[in-house]
Amino acid sequence: MENQAGFQLVDFIVVIGYLIVVALIGSFSGGKQRTMKDYFLGGSNMSWWVVAFAIVAAETSTLTFISIPGLAYMTNLNFLQVTIGYLIGRIIVSFMFLPAYKKGELVTAYTLLETRFGRSTRSFASIVFLFTRVAADGVRLFATSIPLAIIFRTFPAFANYSNISIYAISIIVIAVVTLIYTYTGGVKGVIWVDALQMLIYIGGALLALGILLKRVPDGFGAVNLFSGETDKFSMINWGFSDGIRGFFAKPYTLVGSLLGGAFLSMASHGTDQLIVQRLLTTKTVKDSQKALITSGVIVIFQFALFLLVGLMLFAYYQGAKVGGAGALFSKPDEIFPYFIIHNLPTGIRGFIIAGLFAAALSTLAGSISSLSSSAMMDLYKPYFGKTNDPARDLKVSRLLTIFWAVILTAVAFLFINVLQSVVEIALSIASITYGGLLGTFMLGVLFKKPDQRDAIWGFSAGILAMLLFIVLPFILGRPSVVYWTWYTLIGCVVTLIVGNIAAAFHKK
């Protein structure tokens, strides 16, 4: 039976109370920062298990929280193959990159590139990271504002506000809360809040699953009653049924998922400052390795949970169609939020929406902190701040934190009226650059001959290859010839090949 009353005052109080508590915890748990290293690296003395939780929270956005149940509703459990690839990728990063990161006084992911190739490569990688992160997380900030905007619309005080105004207010509220504890608590405050928020949104998802199992007769046994010939519990897709072209274009084949998940995880957790910054806050290499590998195990559990919620939603709504005339939902991403707003008891509804915000705030806070640290340490400090004292470095670091929060807010505003197509483009941006980034790091770690010029040639070729695979088909109005799980691998391979060819010519 649906509760059409939707969001109530109690739910609103739960959500607002949660946002206030998060801001306070983040501000006070960061302690006092005296130097730039305290602010961006937490003094390099964080516990590995807290960092593991923070890594999971940082990579889990609102889009994950609402999209993965929608994916399971539409398909099956094939996505779990990708999460096994995620774990494999983290194990490789733990032993390939982390010892090099912890060997010297490295302060960002891209310091390693300067040590191996030179300052220009470090600056190039940092600039690519800044543009990628701003585009991708500007979208995530906008996505986070959607449920808050829906909540605001239920209150008479906002009856006369336009859609754009409500979204703008929602974006600003979320950005300000995140900025407060990121600015005052530094990375230590961000990490402690991330650990808390992972527990909140996992608890919310478990609660939703428990309620679904209670309300659907026969529980999981009812899922396949409405699926026709499709097995909703299918986990492995070999992908050999449609020939070579189908093998690369088909979503979530076993080989594509394992390779795609592994290479994506190697790029995101080995070369992206958002995650590497957290790994640099631990005391030793072993602590970093334990944090990273443990996060991979947690992610498998987490995605399994979100997918099972999706299957139970399929049973609850008896396989109701998505999209088209008369459909209950216009797109898969609406299914879980709709269930939360209309079918959960007052109070519990507020708690789960708070969990949704938890997933979003952790990603946004990590993004602001990583953008600030990379801009400060990779670009400002080497070129403009060589003679600064620690107090001035800390002041500039905090000013950069405010600057990037404002930039992300401005980018989020751009998506208010152009949600559908632009979200998909922006979320593909990470795939455009990840392959080149990972390939450049592997050039430095695995090969001795390539120098700075070769690395930049390879990096540029990797990005260009991804533009051809992702952006060109979109411009031509055609589907890509390969599925997204292959993007990072292709970009990485192109970078390695071009970098080594350039080195061979260079040597001659």
Helices and strands, with pairings:
Elements: H1 9-29, H2 36-41, H3 48-59, H4 62-74, H5 80-96, H6 98-103, H7 111-116, H8 119-153, H9 163-215, H10 243-249, H11 254-270, H12 273-279, H13 285-316, H14 335-343, H15 348-383, H16 390-414, H17 419-446, H18 452-476, H19 487-507
Helix pairs in contact: 1-9, 1-15, 3-9, 3-12, 3-13, 3-15, 4-13, 4-15, 5-11, 5-13, 8-9, 8-15, 8-16, 8-17, 9-13, 9-15, 9-16, 11-17, 11-19, 12-15, 15-16, 17-18, 17-19, 18-19
Task: Please explain how this structure is put together.
Helices cover 74% and strands 0% of the residues. Mean pLDDT is 82; it is low at 419-424. The chain starts with 8 loop residues before the first helix and ends with a helix. It has 2 domains: 9-27 and 36-417, Sodium/glucose cotransporter; 418-508, no CATH class. With 508 residues, it is an all-alpha fold. Helix 3 packs across helix 13, helix 3 (48-59) crosses helix 15 and helix 18 (452-476) runs antiparallel to helix 19 (487-507).
